[in-house]
Amino acid sequence: MNTLSKIGCRAVQLVFRTALPILPYRQPRLLDSLTDVPTLLKQRGVNSILLVADGTVRDLGLTAPLESALAAEQIGFAVYEQRTPNPTIDNVEDALRVYLSSGARAIVAVGGGSAMDCAKVVGARVARPRKRVQQMRGLLRVLRPTPLLIAAPTTAGTGSETTLAAVITDAQTHHKYPINDFALIPDVAVLDASLTLGLPPFVTATTGLDALTHAVEAYIGRSTNRLTRSMAEEAVTAIAKYLRRAVADGSDAEARHGMLRAAYCAGIAFTRSYVGYVHGIAHSLGGQYGIAHGLANAVILPRMLRHDGRACKAKLARLARASGIAPADAGDAQAAERFIRWIEEMNRDFGLPTGFAQIRREDIPRMARHAAQESNPLYPVPVLYDQSELEPIYAQLMEG
C-alpha cells in the first residue's frame, strides 16, 4: 500500500479509536435459559414475535420448549427458518414479509450466526423500510431503533449475540459484506448451554476457532482498550481450557457453557476493537464459494499471523502468556510462535484443511479487491495491505 493510502487509513482508525469511549456501545441483558424469554416479552408488553430459527436447529426440536412456553403465555409467533449457511438478501426479504404479515413486534433469533445475522437485518429493514439491504452496507447506515431483538446462539463462535455486525451475501454478485450499526446490537442474549449440547465435533471446532479469531484480531489490532483486551484474554483462556473438551465430548455441559462465554467475550472485544484481514479474506471466500465462515477463519488465521510477523509479535506474545498458552517467562518470539503453533495443532487435530481447493486463480484479484475494500480503512490491522499485497495470501491458501 502506498504511503498516502496508509496515512488515510490510519487517520480514519485514529478517529474511531479516539471516539471509542463516547460511542453508544452497549452490552445485551443476559438470560440463562431460552424458556425465560416469554416472561421477558410479557414484561415488555410484546404479544407477537417473529422467530428466526436455524432450520436444522428447529428440526432437532431445540426451539420446541420456547414455542410451548410462548403458547402458554399466549404470545403469538410466526416462524422463519434460515436454511442457508450464509444468509442472503433474499432470505432477509422473505423473513421481513413474514414479520410484517404476522403483526410481530419483536424478533427472537435462535441458531448460529446465520440466523442471528438474518434477524438483525430484518430488524434494520423494519426500521428503514425504504432502504434496501445493499444500501446498508458498511458503517452506520441504519441509525434508527430496531424492534426488540433477542438472540440465542446454538453455536459458540460468532459472538453475534453481542455485536453490532451482521454479514449478508448478495447472491447475484457472490459478494459477502458486513453491515455495522449500533442499532444491530441485540437487546438480550440467551447463553443457554443446553442449546449447544450434542453439536457435531466439526461444527464445534470451527465455530470455536471463529471465536478465537475474533479475540485474536481484536487484541493485536491498534484500537484496543482495557475492556477489549480483558475480554479477549478471557475468551482465549476459556478456549484453551474448553474447546478440545467440547469437541471431544458433545455432552460436556461445563465445556459448552465455557465456550458460550468465550464467544460472548470475544464478541464484546471485536465489536469495539474490530477485526482484520482474516475476516476480509474469509468473507470473500464465503461469498464466492460458500465456504463456512468459521472454517475459513480457522484456516486463514495462522497464515495471517505469520504474514504479519514482527508487527503483531509483542501483542500476540502478551496474549499467549496471559491465556497460559505460553509460559509466563517466555520471550516475545517464543511466546508468539507457541501461540501460532497452538492454532495449527488444533486445526490439524480437528481435521481441518490447510487451504481450499475451491480457489481458482482467476478469482483471486476480485476476491482480494473485495477484502481490501472491506478492511481498509476501517480495520485497525497491525500491517496495512492493498489488493496486490493480499493476492499472495489467496495463492498460499489455494496451494495449501
Structure description:
With 400 residues, the chain is an alpha/beta fold. 54% of the residues lie in helices and 12% in strands. It contains 15 helices and nine strands. It has helices spanning 3-19, 37-43, 55-59, 64-72, 89-102, 113-127, 201-220, 226-248, 253-273, 277-289, 293-308, 310-322, 332-349, 364-375, 387-399; strands at residues 29-31, 48-54, 76-82, 106-111, 138-139, 148-153, 165-170, 175-180, 188-190. A six-stranded parallel beta sheet has the order 1-9-6-4-2-3, sandwiched between helices. Strands 5-8-7 form a three-stranded mixed beta sheet. A hairpin with a 4-residue loop joins strand 7 (165-170) and strand 8 (175-180). Helix 5 packs across helix 6 (113-127), helix 8 (226-248) packs antiparallel against helix 9 (253-273) and helix 11 runs antiparallel to helix 13 (332-349). The two termini are 25 Å apart.
Sum up the structure in keywords.
3-stranded mixed beta sheet; 400 residues; alpha/beta; 6-stranded parallel beta sheet; 54% helix
Task: List strands and helices in order, with pairings.
Layout lengths: L2 H17 L9 E3 L5 H7 L4 E7 H5 L4 H9 L3 E7 L6 H14 L3 E6 L1 H15 L10 E2 L8 E6 L11 E6 L4 E6 L7 E3 L10 H20 L5 H23 L4 H21 L3 H13 L3 H16 L1 H13 L9 H18 L14 H12 L11 H13 L1
Parallel strand pairs: 1-9, 2-3, 2-4, 4-6, 5-8, 6-9
Antiparallel strand pairs: 7-8
